[in-house]
Amino acid sequence: MITRLDKIERIVQKGTLLKSVQCNCHLVLEKRRKYLFILPFMIFVLQLEAQIFLKAPEKKTFMYEKEEISYYDSWASQLRIANAIVLKKDSLIKELKFNDLNNAYWNRFVTYFKMVPNDANDIYYLFFDGIEFDKDEFCYKYRTILRDKTRETVNTGHRLKHYINQVKLMDNVCDCVFKSYNPKLLKILDELKENDQNLRNKFEVLPFAQKKLDSINLTIVLDLYERYGYLNRKLVGVDYEAHMFYIILHSDLETMERFLPIIHKEIEEGRLSPSVYPLLHDRINMLKGLPQEFGTQNKYNPKLKTYELYKTIGKVQVNINRKKYGMKPLE
User: In whole angstroms, what separates CA 13 from the centre of its chain?
Assistant: First the structure.
């Protein structure tokens, strides 16, 4: 437990200096090399020696909407759970449980946000903890959840007034994260995705037209890989991190086997969602006539004229394997 620091300039502990909160995205965007970016939103190094934990804010009924007053105890419980998960960060990383950690960092931030600390600047502690762990996933959630105007988390009057300056800064930080993704590269990925799905569900043309598109897509993806490496969330963001994967998934067996260890390495480094590895692993096994280990693949039964689960190594072991990669068990 730490004591709240009095000044925003000292928001990061033990010598880590926040020199500027002004966004200068263009300065670094001009210097990027192969889309390996240094984030331009601040001149600071977020190498925290320990995670930051704050006491749960006291109940503030005057700040909550009427229907929220009864939520406080639940929020306090959620905050304790999220903190407990973050405390196990090192062991969870070894177990590839990046989704659990990302959710914990997000939940502790948004729960603390809803509870409303006395000093609105305290929200920065948890915001930058989440940014440090995975800026791309955290800002994706920030944009699609907290800043979604159809939701009520931030748009209720009292909270918006309480956090008015903090939200502006956090918006700027995440805007710079999104601007660090090269728009030309994202446009190529958009086109690849469209071509990948364009005819895939039109069974009468799939053997011809879609296979031709798959071949063209693969040529482009292999060229992108040689130029930039694997296009993970650090390079293209959460919205686009699966685009390259699905082209590989719909390629030939040799290409799939080539990229299987590459994709696993990306997952180990927290740069790709763990759930994609089982899809590729099972697809390879199915093409080889081997039982799948995660239960992700269906195969068409011409006699029944329907798709059914392709053979597996057994439901018990399949569910054990699925849990490791953050997947729900097979029913």
Answer: 26
Phi, psi of 108 (to 5 degrees): -70, -35
Tokens of 278: 């089982």
> Cα(307)–Cα(299) distance, rounded to whole angstroms?
5
For residue range 71-106, what is the model confidence (pLDDT) as tens digits?
A: 999 999 999 999 999 999 999 998 888 999 999 999
- Calculate the alpha carbon distances from 317 to 322, 323, 329, 330 in Å: 9, 10, 10, 11
Q: Is the pLDDT of residue 8 over 60?
A: no
**Total Cβ atoms within 10 A of residue 171:** 16
**How far apart (Å, rounded) are the C-alpha atoms in residues 215 and 217?**
5
pTM of the model: 0.81
- Contact by Cβ (8 Å): 44, 12: yes
Q: Determine the straight-line distance between the first and last CA of the chain, rounded to whole angstroms.
A: 42
235, 206 contact by CB (below 8 A): no
Q: Which residues contact 267 (CB under 8 A, 6 or more apart)?
A: 96, 98, 273, 274, 276, 277
Distance of CA 97 to the CA centre of its chain: 12
How far is residue 136's CA from residue 142's CA, in Å, rounded to a whole number? Answer: 10
Domain boundaries, the chain: 8-179, 183-324
Count other C-beta atoms under 10 Å from residue 217's C-beta: 23
